[in-house]
């Protein structure tokens, strides 16, 4: 299966979610948001990295992942998921850790979104559903860290033949994604349907040869597709 695999979740088809969190109260809070959303199905919860690894070969569409776990750092699990072949579930980090170093480490390891834990359960469910369909939810302060990092990266001319050129509409969408827009919000800004935006996102990932928003932003800034 290609690195640009994005699961299409049709209306009426629920996405399987695994919550990786060691605090039972937080787990219950997140689970409530997942179970309240019609397009999500809570497959399981895991309190440790070891427990979560048992689901790496299961039919999981989304991991909602804490970083500070009893037996290690959740960033390690992100790396394991991204280096495995086959199915590529989405990864949404939900953490109290909002410092620049941790955020960038998670995003560059392959997290598709990063939210802080000060969110209501229903908001978490909505953001999780957005992540499954190709969005990349970012808390505002997190988006600022990521964009600042990307602006600091050296830019060079894109090597000819490196990747297929993006269309003007795809570049316009990429600019919104770099500012932390969700797929839904980008669709509203561009007067497009969320489904069309999802198709554009898949095309962008395919052309850039990436599988997450963080990778797409780094590639776009370094190749000169986006300017600081």
Structural key phrases:
single chain, 228 residues, alpha/beta, Arc Repressor Mutant, subunit A, 2 domains, five-stranded parallel β-sheet, 47% helix, disordered N terminus
Fold blueprint:
Elements: E1 15-20, H1 24-36, E2 40-46, H2 49-53, E3 62-65, E4 68-69, E5 72-73, H3 74-83, E6 90-95, H4 100-109, E7 113-116, H5 121-132, H6 140-152, H7 168-178, H8 183-190, H9 194-208, H10 213-223
Helix pairs in contact: 1-5, 4-6, 6-10, 7-9, 8-9
Describe this structure in words.
The protein is of the alpha/beta class and 228 residues long. The chain has two domains: 133 residues, Response regulator (Rossmann fold, 3-Layer(aba) Sandwich); 69 residues, Arc Repressor Mutant, subunit A (Orthogonal Bundle). It has ten helices and seven strands. The strands form two sheets. It has a five-stranded parallel β-sheet with strand order 2-1-3-6-7, sandwiched between helices. A two-stranded antiparallel ribbon has the order 4-5. The N terminus is likely disordered.
Q: In terms of quaternary structure, what is this?
A: single chain
Q: In one word, what is the shape?
A: globular
Note the total helix count.
10
Output the strand order for the largest sheet. 2-1-3-6-7
List SSEs in N-to-C order: EHEHEEEHEHEHHHHHH
| Total domain units | 2
What is the β-strand count?
A: 7
Enumerate the spans where pLDDT stays under 50 for 5 or more consecutive residues: 1-11, 156-161
The CATH architecture of the largest domain can be given as 3-Layer(aba) Sandwich
Class derived from helix and strand content: alpha/beta
Examine the coordinates and then state which fold CATH places here, giving the name of the CATH topology of the largest domain: Rossmann fold
Q: First CA to last CA: what distance?
A: 34 Å
